[in-house]
Amino acid sequence: MARWMLIVLSAGLALAGGAAFTDSVEAIQVGMARIDITPPIDMKATLGGYGERMSRPASGVHDRLFAKALVVNSADKKFALVTLDALGLPPAVKPAVLEKLAGDGWKEEEILLLPSHSHTSIEMNAINPKNVFPIPNLGIYQPALFDLVVGKLVEVIRAAGSQRVDARIGTGSVLLDGEWKRNRRDGNSFIDPTLTVTRIDTLDGKPLAVLVHWATHPTFMTASDMMFSGGWPGHLQRNLEALVGNNSMVLFSNGAEGDQSPRARPDSGPSNWEKAERYGRELALQAYKAWNSIKTEPTCRMAFTLEKADLPPRCWHPDFMATGGAEYGLRENIMNAVLEEMAPASTRVAALRLGDLVMIGIPGELAAERGKNLCDQVAQKTGASHVVIGGLANEWVSYILAPEEYQRGGYEASVSFYGPKLEPTLQAAALKAAEGL
User: Fold this and answer.
1) What is the rounded distance in angstroms from the CA atom of residue 403 to the CA atom of residue 413?
2) pTM score > 0.85 for this model?
3) Which DSSP helix (H) or strand (E) runs through 281?
4) Which of 87, 92, 197, 366 is in the most buried spot, having the most CB atoms within 10 Å?
5) Helices 93-100 and 143-161, axial angle in degrees (round to 10)
């Protein structure tokens, strides 16, 4: 099978109406900014992704970590899409960002934070003020690191929001063959082959920004790899920025990657660092081919909503103590306290429309087949040709599996903390949010 196959490429015009906003398409303006968020080595910040690192600080920097903000303005609306090299975000981060931005007029529904889920970037529990448990496997809370991340996010949103350039926008998707990833729960199960690219140019066609969406874990590096790195998503962004040129900015969003793992590209080299670099570079080439074929338009339908979801009762799976519990140093005698303190009782599901792109922001790691099912339903509701899941959006609450997959158990089920009703609960909230698009 050919490595990639062009499917639908669109100009970004919308079809359906949203209750909260006007139905017309509008001219858009964009602002963009990036900021280095690599923690100073003397801060002794920990790497996220593996409990067996036991909160050892990073030994150095392989490649630097970044947060990037794209602020889109249309008529009287504005929206900030922010991507960053981090394992995930605890519930406290976005409210802290909003508090500092209160004087700038930003509202909760106008900001979407999307971590890459790199396993050699900032540890999620090290920036969680609710993490009061001195368990090295789990990650130790570092107030200075929390302040650094919040401060950098505020700075990059302000910087992007201070700029306005008239822009054109369009989105396209391609299908990549099965050699790029595998389903880590079952090698013969569903994989999502869709690579989605959104192109934003100046009115005269010069590149401004690119958003690349690919739902796969950044997990080439293991617990023994102890330097900060954006992983393959970082390499993807740097290589695509070089290919596109014009000092453009590439943002990366992960998706329904709960059971999706990357396959190393042929002849990548023996080290994990080489595998990650090769994967990101070759994925950038595929994204560049898609980008070259996208037609942009100077008008765009822009809409966004945020839907509250009350989560099912907190619990742990029967497999937890043997899998996730063992990795993160958790035992039954403290689990009730951990869940009560760190697992939120409610969350938010976000929905964003930019022309013919719709992104549903899910606050955790959704399994790919359930993500595809949700995208298909949202496409029917909205008429959009390109619907994606924004994974780990704004906060991480859990892995998110279909009820039957939760019952089947395994690692992913063991770190899903709301029982078999979690996925249906979040799907219902997502579909309700999509009604506003």
Assistant:
1) 10
2) yes
3) helix 272-292
4) 366
5) 50
